[in-house]
Design a protein that fits this description.
The complex is a heterodimer of chains A (about 110) and B (about 110).
Chain A: E1 5-7, E2 10-13, E3 19-24, E4 31-38, E5 42-50, E6 53-56, E7 65-71, E8 74-79, E9 88-95, E10 103-104, E11 108-112
Parallel strand pairs in A: 2-11
Antiparallel strand pairs in A: 1-3, 3-8, 4-5, 4-9, 5-6, 7-8, 9-10, 9-11
Chain B: E1 4-5, E2 11-14, E3 19-25, E4 32-38, E5 45-50, E6 54-58, E7 61-66, E8 71-76, E9 85-94, E10 100-104, E11 108-113
Parallel strand pairs in B: 2-11
Antiparallel strand pairs in B: 1-3, 3-8, 4-5, 4-9, 6-7, 7-8, 9-10, 9-11
The chains are: A mainly beta (about 110), B mainly beta (about 110).
């Protein structure tokens, strides 16, 4: 298996633009997680899905953030409109079961100018 | 109080020494505990997990859990320069009614010096 795949790996955009991050989990995993990592706040859970259904989105910072999982092999995290404080590395992770090892993708480094 | 607390470091140890990384958590209902290693510019990867009080050993790594003191630690024996990384403690709380909440600490940077 290729592991968790994320795209793009780097994204530079201007404030106010829409940003869409993409994730393909490991085949067979039924949980998918979106995290954001910054130096100041560390690794923060934004939202997670179980069998394509959002379970907990309490970590989503505000309405500008939205996430979808239309099928078992694809998820998106969208920021609209983007702001400079959204600059961070965004990780997608998947797991087989809620209390098992999470496998992380390589991350998307987002810079909003 | 943060839910999961770690000393940010850096923690410097000489090659061959034992590195001790510590983590405290605030929620007594926490049920499982994970240590992830993250190299600079890379994604986190799991090193150890522990569910029960006591010690769990895997090669050079030992995880220790004390639920009464709400404390979990990671010991690395015979530290190598390749162990230099940031170590993230993660605590999983299974919520009543289903679902879980995984919270990461901000990590401890370990430097193993030649």
């Amino acid at each position: 298996d290729a592991g968790v795949i994320q795209s793009p790996r780097h994204e530079v955009t201007e404030m106010g633009q829409e940003v869409t991050l993409r994730c393909k989990p490991i085949s067979g995993h039924d949980y998918l997680f979106w995290y954001r990592q910054t130096m100041m706040r560390g690794l923060e859970l934004l939202i997670y899905f179980n069998n394509n259904v959002p379970i907990d989105d309490s970590g989503m910072p505000e309405d500008r953030f939205s996430a979808k999982m239309p099928n078992a092999s694809f998820s998106t995290l969208k920021i609209q409109p983007s702001e400079p404080r959204d600059s961070a590395v965004y990780f997608c992770a998947s797991s087989f079961g809620v209390d098992y090892e999470q496998y992380f993708g390589p991350g998307t480094r987002l810079t909003v100018t | 109080q943060k839910e999961v607390e770690q000393n940010s470091g850096p923690l410097s140890v000489p090659e061959g020494a034992i590195a001790s990384l510590n983590c405290t958590y605030s929620d007594r209902g926490s049920q499982s505990f994970f240590w992830y290693r993250q190299y600079s510019g890379k994604s986190p990867e799991l090193i150890m997990f522990i569910y029960s009080n006591g010690d769990k050993e895997d090669g050079r790594f030992t995880a220790q859990l004390n639920k009464a003191s709400q404390y979990v630690s990671l010991l690395i024996r015979d530290s190598q320069p390749s162990d230099s990384a940031t170590y993230l403690c993660a605590v999983n709380l299974i919520l009543t009614g289903g679902g879980n909440k995984l919270t990461f600490g901000t990590g401890t940077q370990l430097k193993v010096e030649l």
